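Lab manual, section 2.4: Encoding a predicted structure.

Procedure: take the sequence of the chain (78 residues), apply the prediction step described in section 2.3, and record the output as structure tokens. A sample record is shown.
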Amino acid sequence: MRNKELEKIISFVCNSSIDVIMVAIEEDKMEKEFPYAIACSNLMCELKKKNIMVDFNDVFNDDIMEKIVREVNNFLVR
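Recorded output:
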């Protein structure tokens, strides 16, 4: 379930490179490159476990979204 939420978050940021980014995040070495994206997906998974359905836009403010965009952009620039 965590990967599904993470994929939704990444697709919100950039739809074209989801597969590449997901593979990178799933590697242990890359988890530290995406702390905001992973933390957000963990929170959303925990809420879903408690039957609290939320949308990414409803839970996180623009500042968090910008940080996730920055994480993805930094990764893609390499």
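Check your result against the sample. The helical segments are 2-13, 18-26, 35-49, 56-59, 62-77.
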